Amino acid sequence: MTKEKFGITREGREVYQYRLVNRHGMEVCILTYGGIISSLVVPDRKGTREDVVLGYDTLDGYLGDRAYMGAIIGRCANRIAGGRFMLEGVEYTVTSNAGRNHLHGGARGFDKVLWEVDERASDDGTSLVLRYRSRDGEEGYPGNLAVRVAYSLTEENDLFIEYAAAADRTTIINLTQHSYFNLAGAGRGDILGHELFIDADKFTPIREDLIPTGEIRAVSGTPMDFRKPCAIGKRMGSGDEQLALAGGYDLNWVLNPGKWEMHLAAIAHEKTSGRFMGVFTSEPGLQFYTGNFLDGTAVGKGSVAYARHAGFCLETQHFPDSANHAGFPPVTLERGRTFQSTTVFRFTVR
User: Is 315 noted as a catalytic residue in this protein?
Assistant: First the structure.
Protein backbone atom coordinates (compact mmCIF):
# COMPACT_ATOMS: atom_id res chain seq x y z
CA MET A 1 0.00 0.00 0.00
CA THR A 2 1.23 3.49 -0.85
CA LYS A 3 0.15 6.90 0.38
CA GLU A 4 0.36 10.25 -1.38
CA LYS A 5 -0.91 13.76 -0.77
CA PHE A 6 -3.92 14.48 -3.01
CA GLY A 7 -4.72 18.08 -2.09
CA ILE A 8 -5.86 20.52 0.58
CA THR A 9 -9.45 21.28 1.51
CA ARG A 10 -10.80 24.83 1.58
CA GLU A 11 -10.35 24.70 5.37
CA GLY A 12 -6.66 23.95 4.90
CA ARG A 13 -6.75 20.25 5.82
CA GLU A 14 -4.66 17.73 3.91
CA VAL A 15 -6.29 14.93 1.92
CA TYR A 16 -4.40 11.72 1.13
CA GLN A 17 -4.85 9.04 -1.48
CA TYR A 18 -4.06 5.43 -0.59
CA ARG A 19 -3.34 2.84 -3.28
CA LEU A 20 -3.91 -0.91 -2.89
CA VAL A 21 -2.46 -3.21 -5.57
CA ASN A 22 -2.57 -6.97 -6.17
CA ARG A 23 -0.38 -9.29 -8.27
CA HIS A 24 -2.84 -9.40 -11.18
CA GLY A 25 -2.64 -5.73 -12.11
CA MET A 26 -5.76 -4.62 -10.28
CA GLU A 27 -5.51 -1.56 -8.07
CA VAL A 28 -7.83 0.70 -6.12
CA CYS A 29 -7.20 4.23 -4.88
CA ILE A 30 -9.14 5.64 -1.91
CA LEU A 31 -9.25 9.21 -0.62
CA THR A 32 -9.48 10.24 3.01
CA TYR A 33 -12.02 12.84 1.81
CA GLY A 34 -15.41 11.14 1.62
CA GLY A 35 -13.82 7.67 1.66
CA ILE A 36 -13.97 8.08 -2.12
CA ILE A 37 -12.83 5.38 -4.55
CA SER A 38 -10.95 7.73 -6.88
CA SER A 39 -9.64 5.00 -9.18
CA LEU A 40 -10.29 1.32 -9.80
CA VAL A 41 -7.99 -0.20 -12.40
CA VAL A 42 -8.98 -3.61 -13.81
CA PRO A 43 -7.38 -5.56 -16.70
CA ASP A 44 -9.52 -6.58 -19.68
CA ARG A 45 -9.39 -9.90 -21.55
CA LYS A 46 -6.17 -8.81 -23.30
CA GLY A 47 -4.55 -7.63 -20.09
CA THR A 48 -5.08 -3.95 -20.90
CA ARG A 49 -5.63 -2.04 -17.67
CA GLU A 50 -8.37 0.57 -17.49
CA ASP A 51 -9.82 2.72 -14.73
CA VAL A 52 -13.49 1.67 -14.55
CA VAL A 53 -14.91 4.29 -12.14
CA LEU A 54 -15.85 7.87 -12.93
CA GLY A 55 -14.16 10.62 -10.94
CA TYR A 56 -11.81 13.58 -11.06
CA ASP A 57 -8.09 14.19 -11.46
CA THR A 58 -7.91 16.73 -8.64
CA LEU A 59 -9.39 17.30 -5.21
CA ASP A 60 -11.14 20.45 -6.47
CA GLY A 61 -13.27 18.23 -8.71
CA TYR A 62 -14.49 16.22 -5.73
CA LEU A 63 -15.00 19.33 -3.57
CA GLY A 64 -17.35 20.74 -6.22
CA ASP A 65 -19.01 17.43 -7.07
CA ARG A 66 -22.78 17.06 -6.72
CA ALA A 67 -23.08 13.46 -7.98
CA TYR A 68 -21.52 11.67 -4.96
CA MET A 69 -18.80 10.24 -7.22
CA GLY A 70 -17.21 7.20 -5.57
CA ALA A 71 -18.10 8.21 -2.02
CA ILE A 72 -19.22 6.51 1.17
CA ILE A 73 -22.82 7.54 1.79
CA GLY A 74 -24.33 8.05 5.26
CA ARG A 75 -25.59 8.49 7.88
CA CYS A 76 -28.60 7.30 5.90
CA ALA A 77 -28.27 6.58 2.18
CA ASN A 78 -30.98 7.40 -0.35
CA ARG A 79 -34.10 9.48 0.41
CA ILE A 80 -36.11 10.27 3.53
CA ALA A 81 -39.52 11.74 2.72
CA GLY A 82 -39.99 15.29 3.95
CA GLY A 83 -36.74 15.08 5.87
CA ARG A 84 -38.68 13.60 8.81
CA PHE A 85 -38.95 10.28 10.65
CA MET A 86 -40.26 8.94 13.95
CA LEU A 87 -37.99 7.11 16.37
CA GLU A 88 -39.05 5.88 19.81
CA GLY A 89 -42.04 8.21 19.74
CA VAL A 90 -40.00 11.30 18.83
CA GLU A 91 -40.11 13.04 15.45
CA TYR A 92 -36.70 14.00 14.06
CA THR A 93 -36.05 16.50 11.27
CA VAL A 94 -33.00 16.01 9.09
CA THR A 95 -31.61 18.34 6.42
CA SER A 96 -33.77 18.64 3.31
CA ASN A 97 -31.26 18.86 0.48
CA ALA A 98 -33.32 17.41 -2.40
CA GLY A 99 -36.38 19.61 -2.57
CA ARG A 100 -38.38 18.87 0.57
CA ASN A 101 -36.67 15.49 0.98
CA HIS A 102 -33.43 14.36 2.60
CA LEU A 103 -30.86 12.68 0.32
CA HIS A 104 -27.68 10.71 1.05
CA GLY A 105 -27.00 12.03 4.54
CA GLY A 106 -27.80 15.70 3.95
CA ALA A 107 -25.88 18.82 2.98
CA ARG A 108 -22.69 17.50 4.58
CA GLY A 109 -23.00 13.75 4.63
CA PHE A 110 -20.22 11.20 4.99
CA ASP A 111 -19.24 11.92 1.36
CA LYS A 112 -18.01 15.40 2.36
CA VAL A 113 -16.06 14.74 5.55
CA LEU A 114 -12.46 13.77 6.26
CA TRP A 115 -12.00 10.21 7.48
CA GLU A 116 -9.23 9.11 9.81
CA VAL A 117 -7.01 6.23 8.71
CA ASP A 118 -6.41 3.41 11.17
CA GLU A 119 -2.81 2.66 10.21
CA ARG A 120 -2.54 -0.15 12.77
CA ALA A 121 -5.34 -2.09 11.08
CA SER A 122 -3.76 -1.98 7.62
CA ASP A 123 -0.13 -3.00 8.16
CA ASP A 124 -0.31 -5.87 5.66
CA GLY A 125 -0.94 -3.45 2.82
CA THR A 126 -4.07 -5.19 1.53
CA SER A 127 -6.66 -3.20 3.50
CA LEU A 128 -7.40 0.40 4.29
CA VAL A 129 -9.48 1.06 7.40
CA LEU A 130 -11.26 4.42 7.70
CA ARG A 131 -12.98 5.83 10.77
CA TYR A 132 -15.34 8.74 11.32
CA ARG A 133 -17.22 10.01 14.37
CA SER A 134 -20.55 11.57 13.45
CA ARG A 135 -21.65 13.83 16.29
CA ASP A 136 -25.09 13.95 17.89
CA GLY A 137 -27.29 16.30 15.86
CA GLU A 138 -25.15 16.19 12.72
CA GLU A 139 -27.56 16.87 9.81
CA GLY A 140 -30.34 16.31 12.36
CA TYR A 141 -29.55 12.69 13.28
CA PRO A 142 -29.65 11.66 16.95
CA GLY A 143 -26.69 10.14 18.78
CA ASN A 144 -22.92 10.13 18.47
CA LEU A 145 -22.11 7.48 15.86
CA ALA A 146 -18.71 5.81 15.48
CA VAL A 147 -18.30 4.46 11.91
CA ARG A 148 -15.68 2.10 10.50
CA VAL A 149 -15.27 1.27 6.80
CA ALA A 150 -12.64 -1.22 5.62
CA TYR A 151 -11.63 -1.53 1.96
CA SER A 152 -9.74 -4.74 1.11
CA LEU A 153 -8.34 -5.91 -2.24
CA THR A 154 -7.74 -9.66 -2.64
CA GLU A 155 -5.58 -11.62 -5.07
CA GLU A 156 -8.83 -12.98 -6.55
CA ASN A 157 -9.72 -9.46 -7.79
CA ASP A 158 -12.38 -8.98 -5.12
CA LEU A 159 -12.88 -5.57 -3.57
CA PHE A 160 -14.40 -6.01 -0.11
CA ILE A 161 -16.18 -3.12 1.63
CA GLU A 162 -17.01 -3.83 5.27
CA TYR A 163 -19.06 -1.38 7.30
CA ALA A 164 -19.50 -1.24 11.08
CA ALA A 165 -21.07 1.38 13.34
CA ALA A 166 -22.27 1.89 16.91
CA ALA A 167 -24.08 4.79 18.60
CA ASP A 168 -24.60 6.07 22.14
CA ARG A 169 -28.31 6.69 21.40
CA THR A 170 -30.81 4.89 19.23
CA THR A 171 -30.52 6.29 15.71
CA ILE A 172 -31.00 5.24 12.08
CA ILE A 173 -28.31 4.12 9.66
CA ASN A 174 -28.07 2.97 6.05
CA LEU A 175 -24.57 2.98 4.55
CA THR A 176 -23.55 2.40 0.94
CA GLN A 177 -20.85 3.09 -1.65
CA HIS A 178 -21.66 5.38 -4.59
CA SER A 179 -19.14 4.56 -7.33
CA TYR A 180 -20.15 5.12 -10.95
CA PHE A 181 -18.94 2.23 -13.10
CA ASN A 182 -18.16 2.02 -16.80
CA LEU A 183 -16.55 -1.34 -17.48
CA ALA A 184 -15.27 -0.13 -20.87
CA GLY A 185 -13.29 2.52 -19.00
CA ALA A 186 -14.16 5.82 -17.36
CA GLY A 187 -15.14 8.39 -19.99
CA ARG A 188 -15.45 5.83 -22.80
CA GLY A 189 -18.99 6.55 -23.88
CA ASP A 190 -22.23 5.56 -22.17
CA ILE A 191 -23.13 2.36 -20.34
CA LEU A 192 -26.37 1.57 -22.18
CA GLY A 193 -24.80 -1.42 -23.97
CA HIS A 194 -23.63 -3.08 -20.75
CA GLU A 195 -25.57 -6.22 -19.90
CA LEU A 196 -26.98 -6.49 -16.40
CA PHE A 197 -28.40 -9.27 -14.24
CA ILE A 198 -30.16 -8.51 -10.95
CA ASP A 199 -31.26 -11.35 -8.68
CA ALA A 200 -34.57 -9.82 -7.63
CA ASP A 201 -38.21 -10.76 -8.22
CA LYS A 202 -39.53 -7.46 -6.85
CA PHE A 203 -38.78 -3.75 -6.66
CA THR A 204 -40.10 -0.73 -4.76
CA PRO A 205 -41.94 1.67 -7.11
CA ILE A 206 -41.61 5.42 -6.62
CA ARG A 207 -43.79 8.49 -6.80
CA GLU A 208 -42.94 11.72 -8.64
CA ASP A 209 -40.31 12.92 -6.14
CA LEU A 210 -38.51 9.53 -6.25
CA ILE A 211 -39.80 8.52 -2.81
CA PRO A 212 -41.08 4.91 -2.59
CA THR A 213 -44.85 4.55 -2.47
CA GLY A 214 -44.53 1.73 0.07
CA GLU A 215 -45.63 -0.91 -2.42
CA ILE A 216 -43.43 -3.91 -3.22
CA ARG A 217 -44.14 -4.83 -6.85
CA ALA A 218 -43.19 -7.83 -9.00
CA VAL A 219 -40.66 -7.14 -11.76
CA SER A 220 -42.38 -9.63 -14.08
CA GLY A 221 -43.63 -7.94 -17.25
CA THR A 222 -41.82 -4.67 -16.53
CA PRO A 223 -38.50 -3.11 -17.68
CA MET A 224 -37.28 -3.80 -14.13
CA ASP A 225 -36.97 -7.53 -14.85
CA PHE A 226 -33.23 -8.26 -15.04
CA ARG A 227 -33.49 -11.89 -13.95
CA LYS A 228 -32.08 -12.71 -17.37
CA PRO A 229 -29.14 -10.54 -18.50
CA CYS A 230 -30.35 -7.61 -20.58
CA ALA A 231 -28.69 -4.53 -22.08
CA ILE A 232 -29.21 -1.58 -19.75
CA GLY A 233 -30.54 0.67 -22.51
CA LYS A 234 -32.75 -1.86 -24.27
CA ARG A 235 -35.99 -0.96 -22.47
CA MET A 236 -35.14 2.52 -21.23
CA GLY A 237 -37.28 4.17 -23.90
CA SER A 238 -40.25 1.91 -23.33
CA GLY A 239 -42.45 4.67 -21.91
CA ASP A 240 -42.73 2.92 -18.54
CA GLU A 241 -44.01 5.34 -15.92
CA GLN A 242 -41.35 4.43 -13.36
CA LEU A 243 -38.51 5.04 -15.82
CA ALA A 244 -40.10 8.30 -16.94
CA LEU A 245 -40.26 9.56 -13.35
CA ALA A 246 -36.56 8.91 -12.82
CA GLY A 247 -35.32 9.74 -16.33
CA GLY A 248 -33.88 6.23 -16.53
CA TYR A 249 -33.22 3.62 -13.88
CA ASP A 250 -33.08 4.96 -10.33
CA LEU A 251 -34.94 2.37 -8.31
CA ASN A 252 -34.48 -0.08 -5.46
CA TRP A 253 -34.64 -3.83 -6.13
CA VAL A 254 -35.74 -6.23 -3.39
CA LEU A 255 -32.98 -8.82 -3.54
CA ASN A 256 -33.89 -12.48 -3.42
CA PRO A 257 -32.64 -14.01 -0.17
CA GLY A 258 -29.81 -16.51 -0.46
CA LYS A 259 -28.75 -19.49 1.61
CA TRP A 260 -25.87 -17.58 3.19
CA GLU A 261 -25.46 -14.16 4.76
CA MET A 262 -23.68 -12.97 1.61
CA HIS A 263 -25.68 -13.41 -1.58
CA LEU A 264 -25.31 -12.52 -5.25
CA ALA A 265 -27.09 -9.26 -6.04
CA ALA A 266 -26.05 -8.43 -9.60
CA ILE A 267 -23.65 -9.09 -12.47
CA ALA A 268 -22.66 -6.45 -15.04
CA HIS A 269 -20.84 -7.30 -18.28
CA GLU A 270 -19.19 -5.18 -20.98
CA LYS A 271 -18.66 -7.23 -24.14
CA THR A 272 -15.80 -5.35 -25.82
CA SER A 273 -13.47 -5.52 -22.83
CA GLY A 274 -14.79 -8.84 -21.56
CA ARG A 275 -15.00 -7.43 -18.04
CA PHE A 276 -17.58 -8.82 -15.62
CA MET A 277 -18.40 -7.30 -12.27
CA GLY A 278 -20.32 -9.36 -9.73
CA VAL A 279 -21.88 -7.73 -6.68
CA PHE A 280 -22.32 -9.74 -3.49
CA THR A 281 -23.85 -8.29 -0.34
CA SER A 282 -25.41 -8.89 3.05
CA GLU A 283 -27.89 -6.07 2.34
CA PRO A 284 -31.56 -6.64 1.40
CA GLY A 285 -31.75 -4.01 -1.35
CA LEU A 286 -29.92 -2.71 -4.41
CA GLN A 287 -30.31 0.74 -5.93
CA PHE A 288 -29.56 0.61 -9.66
CA TYR A 289 -28.94 4.10 -11.00
CA THR A 290 -27.94 5.01 -14.56
CA GLY A 291 -26.44 8.47 -14.04
CA ASN A 292 -29.60 10.25 -15.15
CA PHE A 293 -28.60 13.55 -13.56
CA LEU A 294 -25.17 13.72 -15.21
CA ASP A 295 -25.49 16.55 -17.71
CA GLY A 296 -22.02 17.17 -19.14
CA THR A 297 -21.15 19.98 -16.73
CA ALA A 298 -18.94 17.72 -14.58
CA VAL A 299 -15.52 17.53 -16.23
CA GLY A 300 -13.89 14.32 -15.05
CA LYS A 301 -10.67 12.40 -15.49
CA GLY A 302 -8.69 13.30 -18.58
CA SER A 303 -10.87 16.42 -19.08
CA VAL A 304 -13.80 14.28 -20.24
CA ALA A 305 -17.24 15.77 -19.59
CA TYR A 306 -19.54 13.15 -18.09
CA ALA A 307 -22.78 13.14 -20.04
CA ARG A 308 -26.01 11.40 -19.11
CA HIS A 309 -25.60 7.64 -18.62
CA ALA A 310 -21.78 7.86 -18.55
CA GLY A 311 -21.77 5.47 -15.60
CA PHE A 312 -24.03 3.28 -13.51
CA CYS A 313 -24.25 2.70 -9.77
CA LEU A 314 -25.12 -0.50 -7.93
CA GLU A 315 -25.68 0.70 -4.37
CA THR A 316 -26.25 -2.08 -1.84
CA GLN A 317 -28.55 -0.83 0.89
CA HIS A 318 -31.65 -1.04 3.04
CA PHE A 319 -34.63 0.33 1.15
CA PRO A 320 -35.09 4.08 0.53
CA ASP A 321 -37.21 5.88 3.15
CA SER A 322 -37.25 2.71 5.29
CA ALA A 323 -37.57 4.84 8.41
CA ASN A 324 -41.09 5.80 7.28
CA HIS A 325 -42.32 2.39 6.04
CA ALA A 326 -43.11 -0.31 8.58
CA GLY A 327 -43.07 -2.96 5.85
CA PHE A 328 -39.50 -2.18 4.76
CA PRO A 329 -36.36 -3.63 6.43
CA PRO A 330 -35.71 -1.49 9.53
CA VAL A 331 -32.80 0.96 9.60
CA THR A 332 -32.94 1.52 13.38
CA LEU A 333 -29.67 1.04 15.26
CA GLU A 334 -30.24 0.68 18.98
CA ARG A 335 -27.80 1.93 21.58
CA GLY A 336 -25.31 -0.79 22.51
CA ARG A 337 -25.76 -2.71 19.25
CA THR A 338 -23.40 -2.78 16.25
CA PHE A 339 -24.42 -2.24 12.66
CA GLN A 340 -22.50 -4.50 10.27
CA SER A 341 -22.71 -4.86 6.51
CA THR A 342 -20.47 -6.25 3.76
CA THR A 343 -20.42 -5.76 -0.01
CA VAL A 344 -18.01 -7.35 -2.48
CA PHE A 345 -17.31 -6.23 -6.04
CA ARG A 346 -15.79 -9.20 -7.90
CA PHE A 347 -14.02 -8.64 -11.23
CA THR A 348 -13.41 -11.32 -13.86
CA VAL A 349 -12.83 -11.44 -17.61
CA ARG A 350 -13.92 -13.83 -20.35
Answer: yes
